[in-house]
Amino acid sequence: MPDRQLSSAQRKTDFIWLPESFFTQALPKIQDLAELKIALYVSYLILRKQEHPYSITYKELLSHEIMATMGEEALRRALDSAVEHGALLHSTPNINGVPEDVYSLTDDSRQPLAINIYMLYEQNIGIITPMIAEELQEAEKIYPPQWIEDAFKETVTLNKRSWRYIARILERWASEGKDSGKHRRSIKKVDPDKYIKGRYGHLVKR
Judging by beta carbons within 10 Å of its beta carbon (0-12, 13-18, 19+), is residue 110 exposed, middle or buried? Predict the structure, then answer.
């Protein structure tokens, strides 16, 4: 049988980045397979979201077949255990005047963007190579999450889909201030040509 060449869509793989606390704190406490499956799948659904709220309601969970087939009693038990062991957070805010069960990730310090910066890149620019991943990780350490998200949005709006363009936007904001400039002093000094003249420069799409 002749080899078939895969299309770019077939080759593309989206990645979901779980909080470190899931592996260091919650996972050692999880003993039940159903709980593990639910904790992972709920995390997956939350991390796929590209805008607020970065959480999911119990009603939303029931709309997914994998949840509905478990039965509500088993699903509730798995969710309660995941919350007890620190894999998920549970709250009951009033939504449209009605209390709703809402689940979110326990480590929200890097959300909404840092966990999803790689997803943003793949969805708006292209496939991530290991070297580009390092550049994204470094930018993530330098700039506030909202800045990076806004830079991606500006790039897409202007149809300038390249990491070099995003990096230039971030460098300008770091130098001149963004909006009110209130974050300017907290940004590390960045070499203007950092992303185009370093060892990864030849990989940056121009």
Answer: middle
